[in-house]
C-alpha cells in the first residue's frame, strides 16, 4: 500500500510554488509505502530509531517471522527479553512492551486517535515512551496518511528544501513560510523533498555551507 494522493494535490503545489513544480514534473508520481496498522506502525518506528534502514528492516523481519501477528497480546506474551533477542536494545523492548500494556488496558486509545486533529494526535503519540514529535509526525504520514505533515525535525526534508529553494539554511521562520505556502498538501511536498534529498535529480545540490567554509 502506498501513500495516496492525486493530481489535485500536485497541481495545487505546482500552482503555489514554481520551483517545486519543476521538481514534481521531473520526478513524477512518487510511490511511498505506508503501514495502515497503527499498533505495528508505532512498534516499527520505535525499532527504527537511531539505526539504519537496513537494520530496522532486519529486526522487523525477525519480529514478524518469530511472532507472526504484531498485536498487544502477542507482544505481551513475548516479553522484553524475547523482543530484545531480535536485535533491539533493552530500552526499545521495554518501550514496546509499555505501549502494548497501554493499548491492552485502554490507557492509549488506538482507535480514538484516528479521529483527533494532527496536533492532538501528535500530542497523544508523543506521550508514549520512545515516541518524540518527529516520530509521531512520521506515524501520521506513513500510517495515518494525514495530508498536511511537514516535519522541521527531519534532516532530509530540510536538506531537500535547501536544494529546491537554494538556501544555505532553513531556520524555523523560513520553514513556516514554506509550510504555510504548501498547506494543505505538505505531506505530498515532503515526499518530493525526501526524493530530492536522496538524489532523485542528480544535478541538484545542497546549498548548506561546507564545514570548512567560514564565510557568513
UniProtKB/TrEMBL annotation:
One of its GO terms (biological process) is base-excision repair, AP site formation. It comes from the Bacteria. Residues 47-198 form the HhH-GPD domain. The chain crosses the membrane at residues 182-201. One of its GO terms (molecular function) is DNA-3-methyladenine glycosylase activity. InterPro entries: Alkylbase_DNA_Glycosylase/TA (IPR051912), DNA_glycosylase (IPR011257), HhH-GPD_domain (IPR003265). Keywords: DNA damage, DNA repair, Membrane, Transmembrane, Transmembrane helix. It catalyses: Hydrolysis of alkylated DNA, releasing 3-methyladenine, 3-methylguanine, 7-methylguanine and 7-methyladenine. The keyword Cell cycle does not apply. Its EC number is 3.2.2.21. GO terms for cellular component: cytoplasm; protein-DNA complex. This is DNA-3-methyladenine glycosylase II. It comes from Candidatus Egerieimonas intestinavium. The lineage of its organism: Bacteria, Bacillati, Bacillota, Clostridia, Lachnospirales.
Amino acid at each position: 500500500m502506498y501513500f495516496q494522493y492525486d493530481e489535485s494535490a500536485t497541481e495545487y503545489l505546482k500552482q503555489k510554488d514554481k520551483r517545486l513544480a519543476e521538481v514534481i514534473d521531473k520526478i513524477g508520481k512518487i510511490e511511498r509505502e505506508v503501514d495502515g496498522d497503527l499498533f505495528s506502525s508505532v512498534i516499527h518506528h520505535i525499532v527504527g530509531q537511531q539505526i539504519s534502514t537496513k537494520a530496522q528492516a532486519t529486526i522487523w523481519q525477525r519480529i514478524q517471522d518469530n511472532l507472526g501477528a504484531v498485536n498487544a497480546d502477542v507482544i505481551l506474551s513475548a516479553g522484553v527479553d524475547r523482543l530484545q533477542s531480535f536485535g533491539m536494545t533493552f530500552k526499545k523492548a521495554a518501550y514496546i512492551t509499555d505501549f502494548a500494556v497501554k493499548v491492552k488496558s485502554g490507557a492509549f486509545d488506538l482507535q480514538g486517535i484516528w479521529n483527533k486533529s494532527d496536533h492532538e494526535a501528535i500530542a497523544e503519540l508523543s506521550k508514549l515512551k520512545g515516541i518524540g514529535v518527529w516520530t509521531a509526525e512520521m506515524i501520521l504520514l506513513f500510517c495515518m496518511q494525514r495530508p498536511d505533515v511537514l516535519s522541521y525535525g527531519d534532516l532530509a526534508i530540510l536538506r531537500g528544501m535547501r536544494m529546491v529553494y537554494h538556501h544555505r539554511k532553513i531556520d524555523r521562520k523560513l520553514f513556516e513560510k514554506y509550510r504555510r505556502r504548501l498547506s494543505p498538501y505538505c505531506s505530498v511536498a515532503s515526499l518530493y523533498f525526501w526524493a530530492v534529498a536522496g538524489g532523485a535529480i542528480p544535478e541538484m545540490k545542497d546549498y548548506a555551507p561546507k564545514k570548512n567554509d567560514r564565510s557568513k
